[in-house]
Structures are given as C-alpha cells and as structure tokens.
Amino acid sequence: MITLYGTAHSRTHRVLWLLRELGLAFEHIPTDFVTRENRDPAFLAVNPNGRVPALVDGDITLWESLTINLYLSRRYGGEIAARGFVEETLAMQWSMWAAAELDKALFLAATNLRFFAAADRNPDDVALALRKLSRPFAVLDGWLTDRRYILGDRFTVADLNVAAVLSLVRLCGLPVEPYPAMSQWLGGCLDRPAADDYLRLDFKLSRLPPENYIFMFL
Amino acid sequence: MITLYGTAHSRTHRVLWLLRELGLAFEHIPTDFVTRENRDPAFLAVNPNGRVPALVDGDITLWESLTINLYLSRRYGGEIAARGFVEETLAMQWSMWAAAELDKALFLAATNLRFFAAADRNPDDVALALRKLSRPFAVLDGWLTDRRYILGDRFTVADLNVAAVLSLVRLCGLPVEPYPAMSQWLGGCLDRPAADDYLRLDFKLSRLPPENYIFMFL
Q: What are the GST C-terminal domain coordinates in residue numbering (chains A, B) (predicted)?
C-alpha cells in the first residue's frame, strides 16, 4: 500500500506525475503547507523535516521528491524506469543536477513572477534568476541536441524528474527560445497526460524584508 | 581507469574522501576553479557545467559530487557501500537531503565566516544561515539519537556524503552544541583518516553587491 502526502500545489506534483505514469494505486493525503498541515505532529512523525511530498510504501518511508520518483520507478517501473546500473546512475545525476542547478533559481523567478503579490514582485530578481539559469539551460540544451530524451531514445524517470523541476518554466512563462532543443523536449514532457498536475501549482507567498530575503532561497 | 577532476579545495574533497576510503587507484587532475581552469574547453568537454568534481571511469562520465560517491560505492564499495535496494534508496535520500537542506545555507555561513575578505563579512548573514540550518540540524540530530550511523550500525556512503557536506561546520567553527547526537556523529566521521582533505578547503571569494548578492547562493 502506497500513501503519498502533499498537495498538488507543491513539489508533490512531481510524484503525482510519476505515480500516474506508472498507473499505480495509492492513497493521497493532501497535506497542505499553505494551511501549515505540514507542521502537524502527525505529519512530522512521517517526515520530521515538515516538507511535502513524503511517501510511505509498506516498511519504507521516504522524503525528497526526486528520490521518491527514482525509488518508485526502480521498484515498480516498466518502460520509464532506468535500465541497469549505468542508467540508474545517470538518472540520479540529472536529478541531483536539477535540484542543485535549477531549483532555487527557478523558485526566485517564480516567486517574483507569480507567487508574490504583484506589489512585492521585483523584475530585477527575475533577471538575476534567468542569468543564473542560462548556464544549466545551455547545458541541457546541448545535451538534448543529439538526443531525443535525457537517457537516449525513450522517456524515462530522468526526463520526468528534470521536466517536473522545470515545469515552472511553463507555469511562469519564462523565456526559453534561446534553448530550442530543451524547449521542444520540455514541451513534449509536460504535454504528457500524466503531467497536468503542475498546472495546479498556485499559492501566494509573502516577500521577506531585504535583510532576510535570502532566507527563502537557501 | 578512474580519473577525478578538481582540486581538494572544492567539493572534490567529497570524492577524494570516498576514493581513499575505498583504497582505489585513480588519476587526479586538480582542475582549479580559482584559476578558472574549470572554464577551459578541455574541461568543459568533460563537464559542460564547468563545475568540479567530475569523474571519468571507463565509458562513464559523471558530475555531481554526491552522485559520483553513490556510483563509486555501489560499483566498488565493500563495507561502506549501501546493501541492497532499500539502503541504496536511503543513501540517495539523505544525499539529496544534504544538498537541498544544508548546502546553500552552509555556503552562506562559510562565505561570511571564512571565504570572504574580513571587511566583506556580515554576521547577520551567518545568523540567517544558522536559523535556516536549525531545522535540518534538529532532524539529523533526532535521527541519530537512537542510531550510531545514518543507515544503522556501520559507517556508509550515506554518512560520508552528509558529513562531507557538513565539513564546513568544523572548518568554520559553526556552533552545533544544541545537537549533541549530530555533533558526536560528525566528529567521528570527520576524524576518519581518509577525510582530512576537507581541511584544505580554503580560497577567497568576492562578495557581490547587495542587488546581486543572492546570485551566489542560488
């Protein structure tokens, strides 16, 4: 029995996508960070970090959305699972790369384009985020220039994890025309029927004052 | 034949530690980001991200320090390797957790305690980083309260990866007394003879002006 904690308007959408690709049955408990359900003792007993998503699958309890997806696809996956040790390693590398190179900069852009109230948005921060993203975007674009998907010729969990992180690109309308291979690949991934939860990624955040602002993005 | 790129005064120290634990022979090319060797075309052909470490092992080329360690220990590791699918998954989860929850906040603290010139350091940013770190520190401390090591009773790549990220705690003298289980575990990990490269983690960085400062930590 698989239980997934977290609302679709959170990083949980990454795992919802994977579960729907695999066609797995699961119980969904939409623990909501907006109402601070993620700080309830009952949820902290599942994930002491107080973050969603979290997953319980029989004896194993997991956090970290991209790890959860690599776990589920290795355990249950058919076509989209990585095949063998080298593909599993590359899927992990690209997942860690997305978390390290994309996640925080995308969040800075997304807060200032969508999740902050209009009066709190700063276009200079969007520009800064895009400047930071220009290097990893070029890397992914180059990688995909002679590959249809990240691991080669089929859609796998590596694509799902990286595209799920990058779903903010479409949600916020970030300009990616300079990266045609990445842009075409991302469109194909996000158009998959199982991916549509990313469109629910909407909530409002308050901007912290300048002296604490960086706290949100660490 | 294993080739490792990157100087010990970079995240490469994480992989040097792992390679020494495993006793593996390797060629070390100390590509140095201080002198911008990481931007040379020859290195960009290995890692288009222009980041160290990077590893070439026969047919496979890898980036992302924590992925490299999980790969090497799964391929070559004896005692410190994760055993079986569940342990491999938990080692990956804790590695991704360290990257997501610790890495950027530790870097903010470390720059303002050590890597910036004295005149550029801001104690308020150290306080901000410590506030951000208080949650993951409490999580790890709680996890280790009834476990000797992250996966149970033996030192594994999960400990190595998390402790390597946390080596900045000792290098910068961050206060961790409120986390006795974490503190004792970290001391034991960093005292291992193979770990001593973390002490070479020294270089100088320039602080960006306030309007761009966040760029360094995305």
A: 84-210
